[in-house]
Amino acid sequence: MHSVVLKNPRISILSSYRRCGDFSLVRRPFSSSSPSTPIDTLNTNLRPFPEYTPKKLSITDAELVHNLTTALKQRRPHSLDRTLIPFADRLRSDHLVWALFQLRSHPAIALSFVRWFRGHTRFVVPAEAQAISAHLALVSGRVGAARQLLRQGIASYRNFIEQVIYTYRHWSSDPDVFNLLFRAVVELRRLEEAHSLFFHLTAFGVVISVESCNAFLSHLPVDAALNVFVEFRLSGVRWNTVSYNIVICGLCRVGKLAEACEFLLKMNSEGGVLPDVITYSTIIDGYCHSGELQRAYDLFQEMRSRGLKPNEFTFNSIMALQCKKGMAVEAERLLIVMENEGVVPDSAIYTTLISGYSNIGSLSAVHRLVDEMKDKGLVPDAGTYTTLISSLCRCGRIIDAGMLFQEMLRKGLSADQVTYTVLIDGYAKDGRMQEAFRLHDEMLQAGLMPNIVTYTALSDGLCKQGELEAANELLHEICQKGLQLNVCTYNSLINGLCKSGNIEQAMKTLEEMEAAGLNPDAYTYTTLMDAYCKIGELTRAHDLLKEMLDKCIQPNIVTFNVLMNGFCAAGKLEDGQKLLEWMLGKKIMPNAATYNSLLKNYSMEKNMKVVTEIYRGMHSRGILPDESTYNILITGHCKARNMKEACYFHKEMIGKGFIMSATSYNALIEGLYRKKRFMEAKQLFQEMQDVGHVANKNIYNLFIDLNYNEGNIERTLELCDEAIEKCLIGS
After folding, report:
1. How far apart (Å, rounded) are the C-alpha atoms in residues 118 and 129?
2. For the chain, N or C: smaller number of CB within 10 Å?
3. Which residue segment(s) compose the domain that 490 sits in?
4. pLDDT averaged over 10-residue windows placed end to end, the chain, 731 residues
5. Considering the entire predicted model, what is its pTM?
6. What's the pLDDT at 435?
7. 8 A C-beta contact, residue 483 and residue 491
8. CA angle 263, 264, 268 (to 5 degrees)
9. Contact 444/450 with Cβ under 8 angstroms?
């Protein structure tokens, strides 16, 4: 769509606009006030474009210009320099403007002459000639050249916009020049000037195209964009779907999701514009970033009911939030829906799912997704590798993580600060401080500067090794490098001191932290409370909770889980249940780990009736069981010889992509064997070996006896050898 110039036949040409100085722009603020007159109706207030009149030239100048332009028209394909050498000493800026008149029907030559003129330092291309050049470039179909000339003009001359208007009627009369001019002002980020230019042009009957107005809209902060949306519409701009999407995106970016939804409703009712996939996907992504999964689901369904097909961005937004909430299995179901609707998943989708399964510790699902990704011809990028490395580190498979890191480098992918820091943190947590510092040195050699997170990981590793003096030296080194210690750094020190049993020194470090002007957070207090709970000093842990609340530090779910673990470890299960009831009463939603503490301890007491009641309460509140929950339930029901329930939870657990622990396998196999369900026990024993778990000695004895009684001597001997190797030699 091009600019529109509205004609008004009633208005005569006003001679007062002959010179460029009469076209000063009026700067107006970004207000919600509308312009005085809409320009989509003809009225007598519209200005005519001025008539262009160049300076008069003398006979001598006229002769020079004639000879110059004749030479340019007749020149052979050799350089301009050779053609213009005879005229160079006598040329002035005015000659350029006069020459353009003679070259008007030869725009290519005219533009070459302007470029030559600009390339000589003793000449100055006047703003008038620059504007004429832009007009000539546009009317000859050289849109790119016109755009560049306008940008140069705006950047170089104070009165350039007035010159474009002044020369328009004579040299162009193509209104698209004003679109290009407006876009050039916007691209140069002169937003106030663009705002003023829009209304200045409306005075001449020019309506800037919606595409150019959209470019302006996309550069504005959301409040200014909302005002411009109203102003420009009243001035003749007909906003389209892209326009609404720009404003909706701005509203979502600043968290104004309700207003974004209102704007969505206005599209049909006021603008007569239909929303598209981008409209809905933008708002869905906004709700996903704010953690409102149900609202995102509702919009997703509304979008589909309108016949709009979600794209990979829409699906990825919802799947990312599901994974963040520990709903990786549900996210993978959405992947199946996505593929059934013909949307091809990309590397980003798989990286999201891999991260989701990694967060819930389902490494088998991670490897399955990687294989699936490769089967589909999707190449893992640096982000995917970083997620995989993080997953392996979290599961304690640091050697595999290091091998994957080397594979990433061999494939030519560049590791960034995040990748190095993830692996350094993995080595540090695994106690491999030598490898962690070696990787730190490699990071420096690669030209990457470790940040405070990297050094915090190293400090944390040293603390966990009990090398508190070395950790302190490292922190001094960090300060010398100009890096500011943050709350996380102090937290790692406090955590290290607590792990080493030096709780009193950890409390002193808390005081030092506050003296340094840093406020402790929930993690700080939770770490200290956990240390006191583990040594049975529940009263001191409770005192820390009071102190935390007095300082208006909001406890998180981990804080309450620490207290729950403390009560359960001390055998105070009733107190643990009271804590759970108190949390629910205060609208503090527990998670799976909260329930797991109670489930585990009641399960150890074989009180499966209470275990079932607690599990049902957990389920009724929409709290999804995690891998630990299933392992606790399976082991507990096996000990209580409730094999039907144990097998049910095993099937459900595997269906969700979780892996049973070796303890759960042993308990379930032994329970099935006692019930004489030998075939199921054999299948489970094979499954256990397939996932890499080692059965205990009792399980091997059961299957050795079973195979011997069945006369399967060869298998019996194999199991004997395996038992000796894994249970006796291995232990």
Report:
1. 11
2. C
3. 452-520
4. 46 29 39 38 60 76 79 69 73 79 82 80 80 89 91 90 89 86 94 92 89 94 93 90 94 93 84 89 94 93 92 93 91 92 89 88 85 88 88 85 91 90 91 91 89 86 82 80 81 83 88 87 92 90 89 88 89 88 85 90 88 90 89 92 91 87 90 89 87 84 85 85 70 44
5. 0.62
6. 92
7. no
8. 105
9. yes
User: Are 698 and 682 contacting, i.e. CB atoms less than 8 angstroms apart?
Assistant: no
Answer yes or no: is 17 within a domain.
yes
Last residue of a domain, one of 467, 501, 520: 520
**d(Cα 453, Cα 489) in Å, to the nearest integer?**
8
Q: Does any domain span residue 137?
A: yes
CA quadruple 165, 170, 171, 177: dihedral positive or negative?
positive
Closest of 180, 197, 273, 199 to residue 38, by C-alpha:
199
Residues composing the chain? 731
The residues, any chain, with a CB within 8 Å of residue 127's CB and separated by 6 or more, are 20, 153, 156, 157, 159, 160, 163
Query: Nearest 5°: CA angle at 561, between 558 and 562?
Result: 90
Return the SS3 of 106. Answer: coil
- What pLDDT shows up at residue 277? 95
pLDDT at 184: 94
Within a 10 A sphere around the Cβ of 52, how many other Cβ atoms?
A: 18
- 3-state SS record for 470-497: HHHHHHHHHHHCCCCCCHHHHHHHHHHH
Residues 294, 300, 301: CA angle, nearest 5 degrees: 95
CB of 348 closer than 8 Å to CB of 316: yes
What residues pair up with 14 in beta bridges, in sequence order?
none
- Rounded Cα distance, 208 and 236, in Å: 9
DSSP letters, 580-618, are: HHHHHHTT----HHHHHHHHHHHHHTT-HHHHHHHHHHH
Residue 289 lies in a domain: no
In whole angstroms, what is the distance from residue 674 CA to residue 684 CA?
Answer: 14
Residue with tokens 């002169």: 190
Backbone angles phi, psi at 4, to 5 degrees: -115, 135
Number of domains in the chain: 2
Angstrom distance (rounded) from CA 502 to CA 521: 20
Distance CA 545, CA 547 (A): 5
Rg (CA), the chain: 37
Distance CA 221, CA 219 (A): 7
CB 468 within 8 A of CB 492: no
Q: What is the pLDDT of residue 19?
A: 34
Where does a domain end: 202, 236, 270? 236
Q: How many Cβ atoms sit within 10 Å of the Cβ of residue 539?
A: 9
Is 283 a domain residue? no
Please give the structure tokens belonging to residue 182. 């407006």
Answer yes or no: are the C-beta atoms of 177 and 138 closer than 8 Å.
Answer: yes
> Is the backbone of residue 423 left (phi > 0), alpha (psi -120 to 50) or beta?
alpha
Between the alpha carbon of residue 358 and those of residues 318, 393, 531, 728, the distances in Å are 17, 10, 27, 33
The Cα–Cα gap between 201 and 204 comes to: 5
- The C-alpha atoms of residue 224 and residue 221 are separated, in whole angstroms, by 6
Buried b / exposed e over 168-196, threshold 16 CB at 10 Å, is: bbbbbebbbbbbbbbbbbbbeeebebbbb
For the stretch 74-85, what's the b/e string if a residue is b when 16 or more beta carbons lie within 10 angstroms of its beta carbon?
eeeeeebeebbe
d(Cα 566, Cα 108) in Å, to the nearest integer?
A: 85
Check if the beta carbon of residue 200 is closer than 8 Å to that of residue 25: yes
Q: List the one residue out of 471, 515, 505, 502 whose CA is nearest residue 489.
A: 471
Q: What is the pLDDT of residue 250?
A: 94
Q: Please report, for residues 15, 45, 531, 629, 648, the alpha-carbon distance to residue 623 in angstroms, rounded to integers and kept in the order given.
A: 79, 68, 27, 11, 19
